[in-house]
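Technical note accompanying the year-one report. For the benefit of new consortium partners, we illustrate the data format agreed upon in the data management plan: each record pairs a sequence with a structure-token string. No post-processing was applied to the example shown here.
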Amino acid sequence: MHAITVREPGGPDVLEWTEVPDPQPGRGEVLIDVAASAVNRADLLQRQGLYPPPPGAPDIIGLECSGTIAAVGEDVTGFSVGDEVCALLAGGGYAEKVAVPAAQVLPLPAGVDLVTAASLPEVACTVWSNVVMDGRLKLGETFLVHGGAGGIGTHAIQVAKALGATVAATAGSDERLRRCADLGADITVNYKTQDFVAEVKQADVVLDNMGASYLGRNIDVLAPDGRLMIIGMQGGAKGELPIGKLLSKRASVMATGLRGRSVEGKGAIVAQVREHLWPLIESGAVKPIVGEVVPMSNAAEAHRLLDEGDVFGKVVLQRDR
């Protein structure tokens, strides 16, 4: 099969469309004939040599895919050859085939086409696990997401709105904020010209992709009993934690990632997504937001697009035919 490999750590041009051995499904796994994958920030870090795959995961980049089941390993139930699915991966999505534990596989939501479905697993599992399962967002609370125009942000806005929260989002231009408002954001903040603490005032749950540079202000904006969920380090990896403020607010800070979790841990999230989030997508309350579709063999261009930060929503890699 063909897959995108990394010639050496570096810029987008180190990505190459090359011949590699076909994967084989093990016990409890299915083999997916990939229709599409999608680009995530973690992919850019892996390309640069800054985010190696966990033990046992493929070296090939790609944390999600959609496609058709081509083979089923031993002890797999609930899926059959020919099923159209999407899947959360530990790696291997930028390829024509990938083997994945069946616990991390999802049927396509009704009404979502096969290529668009590749944009869903990573954002759906990240948002649901952080905002709902760990962040415990409830009806009537205020939710703040940073990077509201990105893949995670566009999904999180819609999920929080569907759950009955007041939604605040930050982004870097008025046009991108207008589109966030169209998705359901009640409060929009241009992070280049406005202070989100002053504009939002209090948030019960904050979903943060910036890390160190926003740590102090994120804690400032937390409401009493607020929950700060950190999922990225775009603004740095080390910050000073104001413990006094946390104590006075009875607030909590949690940092989570999906990729390094066990199959059982990922499977538990996938099961929740299938039960609770898929119906919201099928009803139209939450829509996949795809900003660009690029041929998989031209993954370098897709990485440039994401790095430049002008895409609204996800960048999808469609397999070459």
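Partners are asked to follow this layout when depositing records. DSSP finds nine helices and 15 strands in the chain.
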